[in-house]
From TrEMBL:
This is Divalent metal cation transporter. It comes from the Bacteria. The keyword Transmembrane helix applies. It is found in: Membrane. It is a multi-pass membrane protein. The lineage of its organism: Bacteria, Pseudomonadati, Bacteroidota, Flavobacteriia, Flavobacteriales.
Amino acid sequence: MIVAGSTYGMQLLWVLLLSCFFSGILIYVYGNYTLITGETALFAFKNHLKWGKAMAILIIIGIAFGQWNSLMGIMGISANIIYEIFAIYFPQIVQYKYETVIGIAVVVTAIFYALLLVGKYTFFEKILVIFVTIMGLSFMISLFMVYPLPSDVLKGLVPSIPEVKGGKMLVAAFVGTTMAAATFLSRPLFVKGKGWTINNLKTQKKDAIIAAILVFVISAAIMAVATGALFYDGKPVIKVLDMVNTLEPVAGKFALTLFFFGTLSAGLSSIFPILLIVPILIADYQSGELDTSSRQFKIITAFACLFALIVPVFGSNPVEIQIFSQIFNVFVLPLVIVGIMFLINNGKLMKGHKTSLVINIGLVLAFIFSCVISYNGVSALLGFF
């Protein structure tokens, strides 16, 4: 969102709006399926769809590749942001940037792995709530300091793709971030983790609507802050340091620190679920139950933690890696949508709970949207190489 806002202003707001709308529908139907049937997504794909086993394995591989590559970028961005915050107040550490960034990445990774070993969903949820709250408040407050022109916001709701190099890639990355297949596939296990039953159908629906609205509001605020602070000055964010060089002279140390804490919270709130996602999907496929105390869970998350250190260790540009990685998240999205469409329209599985025509139309539109974005992502990658 920061790269999009700083590079193209509010031009991609329409992509964000559609992604969040379709995400809300998918969060809702995946949660409902689990509450009604008691089954999780990939477990149901494997057992009830003709090509479900192959589909489920392909989805696990696709999401693991996209999410772990994303993890490298996020860890690199987070470590660099923490370093830049320290450098604002302690300039003497600048000469030790590489060593400091690696040290920060190792410490952050170790802390997150230790938190994972606690192994309770309610604990994970509390950690995420803290990070996301800080992120939301930071950018909402920043929005009062720097904001885009209202006319640019309205123009952003008109569909258009930046006709410049990297424009298509960013559109695909946008959808890969806000309409991520991993979000919907993990929903059933999180619903189970909250202890919800068929009696919580209304609560689940309300939760899905609030989730979609909050993702849109917070993401739009981030993009708007980047537009107001960076785009109008012609300062696109290519690397983390770009935020420092542009924002500090304009907004001062306090606003810059606030902006950075929001960005850091966005990164840290993403690390946690990404470390969880592959064990969640494998457990889903195997039995539909996640055992966070199992040896399998500890080994997979430990490997993911080591994988996260690749970008900091090799000193790659984490912003570029992060955008590139998000594109891969859209390729399995059509499969994830088609799979749930078949399941929720199976009267025997749904025990008489009929899916409404409105929801089915929404899913068809979501499928078409995902196919267009996937094609766009392939075109962007072919153009890149």
